[in-house]
Write a structure and sequence with these properties.
about 20% strand; alpha/beta; hypothetical protein PF0899 fold; four-stranded mixed sheet; six-stranded mixed sheet; single chain
């Protein structure tokens, strides 16, 4: 039987045993395992034989191709005509062409060019059979670009350089405060009413006032305070990918790449949740959806509006802001702002140093919607880590065990909350 047909039969028999085991949702029996091992061993031998035969055939074809046109021209006797181009090189066909022979006789009747014969030009000669001599006009050359020529010996210089797609810079996580928790629910107390009753009080001049003129009671004003309990439930953020056991075993670098990419994706989602979490289901209650966050409406221009937001946080929020957060597009517009004579308000393209606006540091965040800026006292934004990012692996997902697929899971648990929502102000830049 032809080796290829026999190889197909062996693989088909092995696949039939695999299919039977899959349908019965069981492992191979010892007898089946022995048969499959035998089929695969025989298939490997046949594959090696087929590969060797095909390699020999390709080598012979390459030798014939590279040797095309190198066959020696047939021996000729003086005066014997050579059949039209048969067995002749390109040069022989040129000098035997009628046009060239006629021209040669006219300039060299004796059969030799005169010694002082210079600047001559022979007539053009056309070859109808040139395609047969040079099939594609270049195959008589050994080239490095052709995979059937010298290109077959070119080996790429494979480096260990890996360049990922990249992610948005995560600047927001450097602003929020991080703490740990050992519970599924974080509680903290917020003050809702503070003491504002302080007043100058004169010294009393009577022990038991009667209401007479000039009596000073000296009673001190009583202050009032009120509090509320705020809750920040712990949420789970997770993501997983599947990889074959063979890929993880053969490509040592891939496991590290997968783990890092999963961790980066978790951090990217945390930053998104801090800004945009709507509090529904397993979402954080992000800053844009937290009740009590202040709002600064647009007034005059962007720079003036941003300056007024500082006052709003100081007066209404009763705290000093620590940093701005901008969408990268909005911060670009701020830095490119010019005065009436086209001078940049900032240091311009040659400026160096940290980004600041009205004396406060600036961070950019892709997750903040464009057209808005966020000003706040970021010491009042807390992220509680219940379980920091961890990587788990298993082959117990679905039917991945029998398919040799490993699930690689990254997961963390955390809670987020604003201890003082009024310490933050959303600024309208439009």
């Amino acid at each position: 039987m032809d080796p290829k047909e026999l190889l197909k039969k062996l693989l088909a028999d092995a696949m039939a045993i695999c299919k039977a085991a899959d349908e019965a949702q069981r492992d191979f029996t010892p007898e089946e395992r022995q048969k499959v091992d035998g089929y695969l061993a025989e298939a490997k031998k046949l594959k090696d034989q087929i590969k060797q035969r095909e390699g020999d055939a390709a080598l012979k074809a390459l030798i014939l191709e590279l040797g095309a046109g190198l066959e020696p021209a047939p021996e000729q006797h003086p005066g014997q005509a050579v059949p039209a181009g048969k067995g002749q090189t390109l040069g022989e066909r040129f000098i035997n062409a009628p046009a060239y022979q006629q021209w040669f006789k006219s300039v060299a009747p004796t059969g030799e060019f005169p010694v002082n014969f210079k600047g001559f030009h022979s007539p053009p000669v056309q070859f109808k059979g040139l395609k047969d001599l040079l099939p594609d006009g270049r195959k008589h050359l050994i080239t490095g670009a052709d995979s059937t020529s010298a290109g077959a010996f070119v080996v790429a210089d494979r480096t260990d350089i890996y360049e990922p797609l990249g992610r948005f810079p995560l600047n927001l996580l450097a602003l929020v405060q991080r703490r740990t928790t050992g519970s599924d629910m974080v509680e903290f107390v917020r003050q809702t009413v503070q003491v504002t009753e302080s007043a100058p009080t004169p010294e009393a001049n009577v022990k038991y006032p009667t209401g007479a003129t000039g009596e000073i009671v000296g009673t001190k004003p009583q202050g009032q305070m009120a509090f509320e309990i705020a809750f920040a439930p712990v949420k789970t953020i997770a993501v997983y990918v599947g990889a074959t056991r063979r890929a993880l075993s053969d490509a040592a670098q891939i496991r590290g790449i997968i783990d890092q990419d999963l961790r980066d994706d978790l951090n990217e989602e945390i930053e998104n949740q801090i800004i945009n979490g709507n509090g529904v289901g397993e979402n954080f209650t992000g800053i844009l959806f937290t009740a009590g966050v202040l709002v600064q409406a647009f007034a005059v221009n962007a720079l003036a509006t941003l300056r007024r937001a500082i006052t709003t946080v100081q007066v209404t929020g009763r705290t000093n802001p620590t940093a701005w957060v901008f969408n990268p597009t909005d911060w670009e517009n701020i830095e490119l702002t010019q005065d009436g004579v086209n001078r940049y308000y900032y240091a311009g393209p040659m400026g160096t140093g940290p980004m600041t606006l009205w004396g406060l540091p600036v961070a950019t965040c892709q997750n903040l919607p464009a057209g808005q800026a966020l000003l706040g006292n970021w010491r009042k934004a807390l992220l509680w880590d219940r379980e920091q990012a961890a990587i788990y692996t298993t082959d117990s997902h679905s039917d991945w065990f029998i398919k040799n697929i490993i699930a690689i899971l990254a997961e963390l648990r955390a809670a987020f909350g604003l201890t003082r929502p009024s310490g933050f102000c959303l600024v309208d830049l439009a």
